[in-house]
């Protein structure tokens, strides 16, 4: 190997530079993901502190995650178009630095309504990384490196989500709102500086040949966005299979993420009386979802998507029902089942969208993530009346109703899948 490098030093240097760029890109975007999800899910771990600081009911504090997810959902569509125009790196870094500014502003918030507005703004900024990351990987990495990048990036998502909740819950025991947000600001600043250092400059063309005419037309007319930019969205929304996949992802996330919010309120009340940090430990049940994501591709190939979708739905329903036994053990088992079923559905839907969309794949993924986070946003207001009238039993009832609609969507999408397979076989 050494002799080959000595005889072709330039080739070895290029290979080393390429590998270095790929490693820097993978870790840069993964660290950016950790920063994003710490900031997104922080509030879910500090609901009691928010309620005390801003003098609101703890149940109302759960709406902070809903408004952030709502803004994030629609901002994903904006970034899907913007990054095709001006590149991946610039909007991603600008959004991260503006996120730091919004964290700084959090230190001076005195009213809950002002906090809601700031979290709405943050939702728009947090969308940049998830909207751009996979397109960034696809632009810059080889197919082999893409598989590695996807695994590390998804793991980083989980780490960021768990870390945000546990860090927030732990610090809220000993710190005030201002002190806690100061720590989050410093952690985020440290992460953003590393991301800025790691992300390499672009060397490949910004767009594919299929999008080049649209980009050139936009440049000539000096317009950042054109009506034709939305053709991809219309194309995918016109596909009945994709519409149902979007619905499945949104409903599954509606149930899962908001159950984790309301179970904290339940565990902090009698007879459990858990403390601020203790209730955040329930988020460790997310780890069963990491396992589901890891094995999802293998199991789909072996057993088929339809069969495993139904199994995942059964796990989510069973997990919700098991929590009604209302002991710590059964609640933990229930959430392990729910998280496992949800993450299997999510990872499967995400891959299915990319496989189904032959054109405008970035926009197809953006639409899926839009529905995904819109589900999280609508889940809080949807489940709130169930919680207020019947407590945790009401949340389970509302979840079962949503999962029943999800079951209908699974039946419809798998029926379309069977028809597609039959048509291909006939032809």
UniProtKB/TrEMBL annotation:
Question: Keyword set for this entry?
Answer: Cell membrane, Membrane, Transmembrane, Transmembrane helix, Transport
Please name one Pfam family that this protein belongs to. MFS_1
Q: Which PROSITE patterns match?
A: MFS
Q: Which domain of life is it from?
A: Bacteria
Q: What is its main location?
A: membrane
Q: Look up and give the membrane topology term.
A: Multi-pass membrane protein
Residues crossing the lipid bilayer are 25-51, 63-82, 94-110, 116-137, 149-168, 180-199, 244-267, 279-296, 308-325, 331-353, 365-384, 390-411
Q: Which GO terms describe its molecular function?
A: transmembrane transporter activity
Q: Which residues form the Major facilitator superfamily (MFS) profile domain?
A: 25-416
**The family this protein is said to belong to:** Belongs to the major facilitator superfamily.
Listed name of the protein: MFS transporter
Natural source organism: Shewanella canadensis
């Amino acid at each position: 190997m050494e002799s080959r490098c000595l005889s072709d030093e330039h080739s070895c240097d290029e290979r080393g530079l390429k590998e270095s760029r790929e490693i820097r890109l993978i870790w840069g975007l993964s660290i950016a993901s950790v920063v994003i999800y710490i900031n997104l899910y922080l509030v879910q771990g500090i609901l009691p502190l928010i309620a005390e600081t801003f003098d609101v009911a703890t149940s109302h504090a759960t709406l902070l995650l809903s408004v952030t997810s709502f803004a994030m959902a629609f901002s994903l569509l904006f970034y899907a178009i913007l990054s095709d125009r001006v590149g991946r790196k610039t909007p991603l870094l600008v959004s991260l630095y503006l996120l730091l500014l919004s964290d700084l502003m959090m230190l001076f918030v005195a009213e809950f309504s002002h906090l809601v507005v700031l979290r709405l703004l943050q939702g728009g900024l947090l969308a940049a990384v998830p909207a751009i990351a996979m397109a960034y990987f696809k632009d810059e990495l080889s197919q082999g490196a893409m598989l590695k990048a996807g695994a590390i990036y998804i793991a980083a998502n989980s780490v960021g989500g768990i870390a945000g909740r546990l860090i927030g819950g732990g610090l809220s025991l000993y710190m005030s709102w201002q002190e806690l947000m100061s720590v989050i600001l410093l952690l985020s600043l440290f992460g953003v500086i590393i991301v800025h250092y790691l992300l390499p400059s672009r060397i490949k063309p910004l767009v594919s040949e299929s999008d080049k005419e649209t980009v050139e037309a936009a440049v000539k007319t000096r317009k950042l966005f054109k009506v034709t930019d939305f053709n991809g969205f219309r194309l995918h929304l016109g596909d009945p299979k994709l519409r149902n996949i979007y619905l499945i992802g949104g409903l599954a996330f509606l149930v899962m993420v908001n159950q984790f919010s309301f179970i904290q309120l339940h565990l902090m009340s009698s007879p459990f009386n858990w403390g601020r940090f203790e209730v955040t430990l329930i988020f460790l049940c997310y780890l069963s979802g990491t396992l589901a994501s890891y094995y999802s591709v293998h199991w789909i190939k072996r057993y088929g998507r339809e069969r495993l979708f139904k199994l995942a739905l059964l796990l989510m329903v069973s997990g919700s029902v098991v929590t009604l036994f209302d002991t710590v053990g059964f609640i933990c088992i229930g959430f392990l089942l729910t998280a496992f079923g949800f993450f299997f559905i999510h990872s499967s839907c995400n891959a299915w969208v990319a496989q189904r969309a032959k054109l405008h794949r970035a926009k197809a993924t953006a639409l899926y993530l839009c529905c995904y986070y819109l589900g999280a946003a609508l889940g809080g207001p949807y489940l709130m009346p169930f919680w207020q009238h019947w407590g945790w039993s009401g949340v389970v009832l509302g979840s079962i109703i949503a999962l029943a609609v999800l079951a209908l969507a699974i039946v419809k999408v798998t029926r379309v899948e069977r028809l597609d397979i039959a048509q291909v076989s006939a032809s």
